[in-house]
Design brief:
The chain has about 80 residues and is mostly beta strands. The chain is built from one helix and six strands. The protein has one helix spanning about 15-25, and strands at about 15, 30-35, 45-55, 55-60, 65-70, 75-79.
Amino acid sequence: MAQYRLSDVNVGENYTAKELDSFVSTTDVILLSNNGSQLFTEPDREYKVTMELDGFFEHSSQDGEKYYRDKKAYIVEKV
């Protein structure tokens, strides 16, 4: 699977699920997909990166507070 290793993705470009799988396995990022929990079920399905975010807010169920996470998040859509 070494040929699929990605260290970066670009908004507007298409990637296969196996490329995105490699990307999230080697990079500290979050992927948000309109394909629900099935993002990695079809390795050759293509997804387009539609947006890149520098971080996000997360609600803590432990203390009820909202925290900003300084972590890249990418939104991908099925092609």
